[in-house]
UniProtKB/TrEMBL annotation:
Domain spans labelled Amino acid permease/ SLC12A: 156-333, 445-723
Keyword Endoplasmic reticulum in record: no
UniProt-listed InterPro entries: AA-permease/SLC12A_dom, KCL_cotranspt, SLC12_C, SLC12A_fam
Compositionally biased region (Gly residues): 52-62
Compartments, record wording: Cell membrane
Topology relative to the membrane: Multi-pass membrane protein
UniProt organism field: Sparus aurata (Gilthead sea bream)
NCBIfam families attached to this UniProt entry: 2a30 (TIGR00930)
Region ranges (Disordered): 1-81
Membrane-traversing stretches: 151-171, 183-208, 229-261, 285-304, 311-332, 444-464, 485-510, 530-548, 584-602, 608-629, 641-658
Reaction equation(s) it catalyzes: K(+)(in) + chloride(in) = K(+)(out) + chloride(out)
The protein's name: Solute carrier family 12 member 6
A cellular-component GO term for this protein: plasma membrane
Entry keywords, A to Z: Cell membrane, Chloride, Glycoprotein, Ion transport, Membrane, Phosphoprotein, Potassium, Potassium transport, Symport, Transmembrane, Transmembrane helix, Transport
Length: 1058
């Protein structure tokens, strides 16, 4: 019977709907595969498992039960993320014949055709689109769900235009031109437009460097600069977008209450001083109502917002066209908006009766009463009123009037100043105007920096296209073209508007923020053709539309951040309705926007969102510049018109604008971003997105390592780069975790730490065990708060593994220079001599490698990080000089809280021929120059005869080692061993004598010390004496609670020079 071949491709278990627990040919054994002519199991839950099988060469090697899969209820068709197996049997035959050589690695290295097929079928879905599809599939008609396919014009260009042309153009641009003048106004507009254009170029490069899902700016920054920067800037951008919504709503309410329906005001003031406060309260009430209505509209469905968007955009375009037409018409027929002046001071048009011009009648008017004590002609009047005449000037002189020459220069005002026309005559003996008089007053103090902060929101909105990246047919093409065209269009409109306003409108009217001088008309509306109402109605609807866009975009941005799960407390905002609409995020957005509405002043809200947007743009530029400079292999943008200098210029302009517009707001915004950054760093979920900061770290590390390679470190730069050797027991637990605790206490030197262990066995079989060991070390390092790296080596013999680790650890100038290892516990009682032989071999290897060696003895008695020593001494026994390690180690230990309160004592040994008094003076001077505070004592060791105790200890040692040796030797070798034993006996006695004498002195002086550091003698050259060497070290440290044996690496580690 011909066999049927099958291929199970790698995918996740939850993606296999038909893979039931009762499938007969699939078991849970991991890592197995079906090979030719054999039946083995496949792992059902392992994403990297596969079954690829077939018959023998003849085609009849398999029985039917071996080569078929039970289809069950017909749902067990398996789909793959890599391999599309909808081809017929012929394709599988072809695959088996031509790629059989690669079949065992097909789980990790899929066929190229399969990978390409998968990529070709990729759909760029919006956030929540999957849930949206599932919700729709439940419906009665079960229509096939379609991902929104929007082009450049509808998807990017028009939304950007609508968001950029906002409330500032209609309500504040004339006022900005009036205060700053045409030249400074052009400068403000040009700098802001340059900032957004440079940002758009950087954003285009990032957006075309791969697929950008929903989330837009947040996604781009987080994937370029990492989750910390991404989260911080993403939240700043979210707050900026939310406050923008509040600003647009405030603008709409200002238009409504000032120009459309002034009588709709709920709060009114009888006194001029209270008018401002009453207006703010009206803004709060109506703004809150408007926000509620808009939020409900967004909640009902984004499709309604998108349907209204085209209407709102039409309003914007009609309004702007009417301004241009009005400016051209004014050259031939200027509109009639007379402005009443007293001397050079502007009179509010609300107070003037059209039927009675005060300059032409002989009876008193309502204005007379405001300047004089009564209506009589002989009443006492204001001094300025008496000495100046009323006059009437044209509010809109027109394009051909030449008024631009007066409007070129700035005319900044302080709060409470009267709006004046400098070219008109006026008496100089005037006292400051009273607020009860009908002048037009400046409501806030203006300056160049303030105007930058107020104007900048009118160029924001460039991210509108990238925020819709999930809805675009081809985001990589649409975002750059649409955004840059939108910025060019709006920049031209703004720059020409500044010139047109300066050329057509009288200066006092430009500086009149609310149009009081022209009877409460919207200033920009006075220029419009055919009627001011075109602008008033158009601007009202356009600001409402921009507010709706902000309330639509901001919750989606928050949802994208929440779904990434990098900020734990935002997790709830990732959920929404069944179709993916961000309900909870919309609620939070509405609450934050309400805070902006409670501020109630457009001029106070604008600088806040300026900061947040500038912060976002700054990091977009940084991300692009960084990626370009680092030349990351993955950095291949399809948009090629970018350069790192442009990105850094954009970044500089953003930073400058932040501090120019409001330095204290800038600091607050940076503090908020910094706090979010640190929060994500410490509490956020760890994400690996291949971000630019990681690339920057790699480049910086490479540069630093290459610099370190240039030469050996100077003595002043020496710091302990520690390799900690840990041993694991049979259950993969660390035997002496206090070794790592001790290493962490040494880390005041801020050097490198590598924690290593050796796993016995064959690497091919023990790889999993090595990974488990590495995880164990990482957990212990986290617990002890040790910053460093862990390394696990698999070797047949532990001593070989340790040797390999010492040779290969580190990289370049960041190689370990100090090895920390534990003392072989109970080595005398151990039946297996390998433990202490491995120890001695490690001592020899570290010596050969010129590394320092630290061996803590009785490590279990060393204090933990939570047990600080409240008193006592760290005693240093400086017997031989080997680079100054003995001086440096206590100093480093005392930087740690555990040892901080311990004093330091240094003992050195004087022989009979030494001058101990002079030695003490020299040692004190040496320590003074080293800037180390310590008590100094010189211990004299007199020559004495070798005691009987020494002979006895030596004899016991010899007998034990000889007995062990003879157990391992043949009969002929034993006879020769007897004669050799007599030769080495005398040298052993001398060594034992030294150990016993030193031990007596050390125990006598340092029995109460918290820690004793002493030189560790080197192992014998002849390996036969290894066991004796261990005995000497035991005798040397007998009776001491905590001992640190120190062996220098042969180089100086401490110096007296600065």
């Amino acid at each position: 019977m011909a066999s049927v071949r099958f291929t199970v491709t790698p995918t996740k278990a939850e993606d296999l709907p038909g893979l039931s627990d009762t499938s007969p040919d699939i078991s849970s054994r991991s890592g197995a595969r079906v090979r030719f002519g054999s039946r083995e199991s496949v792992n059902r839950s392992d994403p990297l498992s596969e079954v690829s099988g077939g018959g023998t060469a003849g085609g009849g090697g398999d029985t039917p039960e071996h080569s078929s899969v039970d289809q069950g209820d017909g749902n067990s068709k398996i789909s793959s993320v890599y391999i599309n197996n909808t081809h017929g049997v012929d394709d599988d035959d072809f695959y088996d014949r031509n790629l059989a050589l690669f079949e065992e690695e097909m789980d990790t290295r899929p066929k190229v055709s399969s990978l390409l097929n998968r990529l070709a079928n990729y759909t760029n879905l919006t956030q929540g689109a999957k849930e949206h599809e599932e919700a729709e599939s439940i419906g009665e008609k079960k229509k096939a769900s379609k991902s929104p396919q929007m082009g450049t014009f509808m998807g990017v260009y028009l939304p950007c235009l609508q968001n950029i042309f906002g409330v500032i153009l209609f309500l504040r641009l004339t006022w900005v031109v009036g205060n700053a003048g045409v030249l400074q106004g052009l400068c403000i507009v040009f700098v802001c437009c340059c900032c957004t254009m440079l940002t758009a170029i950087s954003m285009s490069a990032i957006a075309t460097n791969g697929v950008v899902p929903a989330g837009g700016a947040y996604f781009m920054i987080s994937r370029s600069l990492g989750p910390e920067f991404g989260g911080a800037v993403g939240l700043c951008f979210y707050l900026g977008t939310t406050f923008a919504g509040a600003m647009y709503i405030l603008g709409a309410i200002e238009i409504l209450l000032m120009y459309i329906a002034p009588k709709a005001a709920i709060f009114e003031s009888k006194h001029p001083e209270g008018e401002g406060a009453a207006m703010l309260n009206n803004m709060r009430v109506y703004g809150s109502i408007c926000l509620l209505l808009m939020s409900l509209l967004v909640f009902v469905g984004v499709k309604y917002v998108n349907k209204l968007a085209s209407i709102f955009l039409a309003c914007v375009i009609v309004s702007i066209v009417s301004i241009y037409v009005g400016a051209l018409v004014s050259a031939f027929k200027p509109p009639q908006f007379p402005v009443c002046m007293l001397g050079n001071r502007t009179i509010s048009g609300h107070e003037i009766d059209d039927n009675k011009s005060p300059a032409l009648v002989n009876e008193t008017t309502s204005i007379w009463k405001l300047f004089c004590d009564g209506p009589e002609l002989n009443a006492s009047c204001d001094k300025y009123f008496n000495s100046n005449n009323f006059s009437e000037i044209a509010g809109i002189p027109g394009l051909a009037s030449g008024v631009i020459s007066e409007n070129l220069w700035s005319a900044y005002l302080s709060k409470g100043d009267v709006v004046e026309k400098g070219s008109l005559e006026s008496s100089v003996d005037a006292h400051p105007a009273s607020t009860h008089q009908p002048y037009v007053f400046a409501d806030i103090t203006t300056s160049f920096t303030l105007l930058v902060g107020i104007f900048f929101p009118s160029v924001t909105g460039i991210m509108a296209g990238s925020n819709r990246s999930g809805d675009l047919k081809d985001a990589q093409r649409s975002i750059p073209i649409g955004t840059i065209l939108a910025i060019l269009t709006t920049s031209i409109v703004y720059l020409t508007s500044v010139v047109l306003f300066g050329a057509c409108i009288e200066g006092v009217v430009l500086r009149d923020k609310f149009g009081d001088s022209v009877k409460g008309n919207l200033v920009v509306g006075t220029l419009a053709w055919p009627s001011p109402w075109v602008i008033v109605i158009g601007s009202f609807f356009s600001t409402c539309g921009a507010g709706l866009q902000s309330l639509t975009g901001a919750p989606r941005l928050l949802q994208a951040i929440a779904k990434d799960n990098i900020i734990p407390f935002l997790r709830v905002f990732g959920h929404g309705k069944a179709n993916g609409e961000p309900t909870w995020a919309l609620l939070l957005t509405a609450l934050i926007a309400e805070l902006g509405i409670l501020i109630a002043s457009l001029d106070l809200v604008a600088p806040i969102l300026t900061m947040f947007f500038l912060m976002c743009y700054l990091f977009v530029n940084l991300a692009c510049g960084l990626q370009t400079l680092l030349r990351t292999p993955n950095w291949r943008p399809r948009f090629s018109y970018y350069h790192w200098t442009l990105s850094f210029l954009g970044m500089t302009i953003c930073l400058a604008l932040m501090f120019i517009s409001s330095w204290y707001y800038a600091i607050v915004a940076m503090v908020i971003a910094g706090m979010i950054y640190k929060y994500i760093e410490y509490h956020g979920a760890e994400k690996e997105w291949g971000d630019g900061i990681r690339g920057l770290s790699l480049s910086a590390a490479r540069y630093a390592l290459l610099r370190l390679e240039e030469g050996p470190p100077h003595t002043k730069n020496w710091r302990p780069q520690v390799l900690v050797l840990l041993k694991l027991d049979e259950d993969a637990h660390v035997k002496s975790p206090r070794l790592l605790t001790f290493a962490s206490q040494l880390k005041a030197g801020k050097g490198l730490t590598i924690v290593g262990t050796v796993v016995s066995g064959n690497f091919l079989q023990s790889y999993g065990e090595a990974l488990a060991a590495e995880q164990t070390l990482k957990h212990l390092m986290d617990k002890e708060r040790v910053k460093g790296f862990c390394q696990c080596i698999v070797a047949q013999k532990p001593r070989e593994g340790i040797s390999h680790m010492i040779q290969s650890s580190g990289l370049g100038g960041m190689k370990p220079n100090t090895v920390v290892m534990g003392w072989p516990h109970a080595w005398r009682q151990s039946e297996d001599p390998q433990s202490w032989k491995t120890f001695i071999n490690t001592v020899r290897v570290t010596t050969a490698a010129h590394l320092a060696l630290l061996v803590p003895k009785n490590i279990s008695l060393f204090p933990s990080n939570s047990e600080p020593c409240t008193e006592g001494y760290i005693d240093v026994w400086w017997i031989v000089h080997d680079g100054g390690m003995l001086m440096l180690l206590p100093f480093l230990l005392r930087q740690h809280k555990v040892w901080r309160k311990c004093g330091m004592r240094i003992f050195t040994v004087a022989q009979m021929e030494d001058n101990s008094i002079q030695m003490k003076k020299d040692l004190a001077t040496f320590l003074y120059h080293l800037r180390i505070e310590a008590e100094v004592e010189v211990v004299e060791m007199h020559d004495s005869d070798i005691s009987a105790y020494t002979y006895e200890r030596t004899l016991m040692m010899e007998q034990r080692s000889q007995m062990l040796r003879q157990m391992r030797l043949s009969k002929s070798d034993r006879e020769r061993e007897v004669s050799l034993a007599l030769i080495v006996d005398h040298s052993n006695v001398r060594r034992m004598h030294t150990a016993v004498k030193l031990n007596e002195v050390i125990v006598n002086k340092s029995h109460d010390a918290r820690l004793v550091l002493l030189n560790m003698p080197g192992p014998p050259r002849n390996p036969d004496g290894d066991e004796n060497y261990m005995e000497f070290l035991e005798v040397l440290t007998e009776g001491l609670e905590r001992v640190l044996l120190v062996r220098g690496g042969g180089s100086e580690v401490i110096t007296i020079y600065s």
